[in-house]
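Example 390, ligand adenosine-5'-triphosphate.
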Amino acid sequence: MNKEIILIKNGELALKGLNRSTFEEVMIKNIKRKLKPFGNFSVKRAQSTITIEPMDDNFDMSIALEQMQYIFGIAAFSKALVCEKDINDILSRGPSYLADALSGVKTFKVEAKRSDKSFPLTSPEISKLMGGELLKKYKHLSVDVHNPECVVTVEIRDFAAYVRAGQIRGAGGLPVGTAGKAAILISGGIDSPVAAYMMAKRGVALSAIHFASPPYTSPRAEQKVRELLEKVSAYSGPIRLGVVPFTEIQEQIAKNCPEEFFTLIMRRMMMRISCILAENSGCLALITGESLGQVASQTLPALAVTDEVCTMPVLRPAIGMDKEEIIKISKKIDAFDISIQPYEDCCTVFTPKHPKTRPTVLQCIEAEKALDIDALISRAVENTEFSYVE
Ligand code: ATP
Ligand code: MG
C-alpha cells in the first residue's frame, strides 16, 4: 500500500541558530494540538523538515493538510509519497502517485534533493530518470525547466525517499508561544482581531480582554467578540477571555467629567484595568487595534495620554496600516463578515460631540479627578468573568 505523509518546511525558524530546536519543539506541540481531533499520527523532525505520518486509516489527510495553513512557523508544506531509498521503488510507484497532480498540467520539471550523500545516484541522475519515467507514462506532458506548471520533487533523506508535486505556502511567522504572551483588547470591530492575528504571527500567545457595558451594549455584542476570537484562535490556539463590567465606569465618567475628555478617560480606565488583568495572567504586553489618525483617540497626543497610565508595553501592529490593508487581513482570517455586523461597542456609548484631539496628560489628570479611580478599577477587576474561546 502507498504510504503518504505531510512534509513541513520551517521558515524563519531556520535562522534561529541555537534556539532553533526550542522553536521547532513549540511548533510541533502546536501541530499536535491542531491535529489531535483528526486521528492518530506521529510527528518527527529531521534536518529542518518535520514529517507527519498517519498512524491509522481514519486519519484524514486532506483535513490535516488544510489545518497546516493555520500553524505559524511553517514556510511550506505538502503531502508526499514515502518510498524506499531505492531508485526502482521510486520510479515504479512515484509516477502513478502523481497522477492527480499532473492531470491538469502540460509542463513539469523534476527536482531531486539528496541529503543522504551515500545514495548511489546524484541529484541530476535522479531527476533525469524520474523525468523520463513521467514522460513515458503521461503522454500529454513535456518538460519545461524554466517555467513549469508543476514541480515534482524527489527527496532522498535519512530514513526514506519522498515524492511530491508542488507545495503549499504556509502561514509564515514564528510558532505561537515562542514570544511570550500578550493580552489583546478586543472590541467587535475590524481592527482588533487583525491586531491579535498579527501578533500571534510573531509568536505571541494570546489572552483577551473585552469591556462590556450592559444594558448599553447587548449580549449579542459579547457573542460577536467570541466569534471573532474563534477565528483568531484557529491560528493562536485557545484564548482565555476576560469580560470586564464597564457600565459603572462609563456612567461615572459621563456624570462627572468634562464631555470632550469622555473617550480619553474611558481609554485610560481601560488601559489601567487591562494592565492589571494582563499581569495577573502572565502577559508581558497589551495589544490594541489602533491605527494612527483613524479616530480622535488615535492621534499621537491621544496615544501618549493613554500610554501614560500603562505599566507594560502596548503593541499596536496596525498603527501604520490603512483601513484597506487591515480589511484585507480581516478577510483573509475570515473575520470580516462577523466584524461588520452592527452591534454597539462600549466605545460608542457616551461619545463626545467634540472629542479632544490634542489632549495633554495634565489635562486628563485634571479631568478625571472627580472619579474614585482606584475603587472603580478594583470593582471592575474583581467582577471580570473569564472563559475560554477555541
Ligand atoms: P476596532 O475595529 O478594533 O473596534 P476601532 O477602530 O473601532 O477598533 P476604537 O473603538 O477607538 O477603534 O478602539 C481602539 C482599540 O481599543 C480597539 O482596536 C481595541 O483594541 C480597543 N477597544 C475598543 N473597544 C474595546 C472594548 N469594548 N473592549 C476591549 N477593547 C476595546
Ligand atoms: Mg471599536
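Summary: The chain is about 40% helix and 20% strand.
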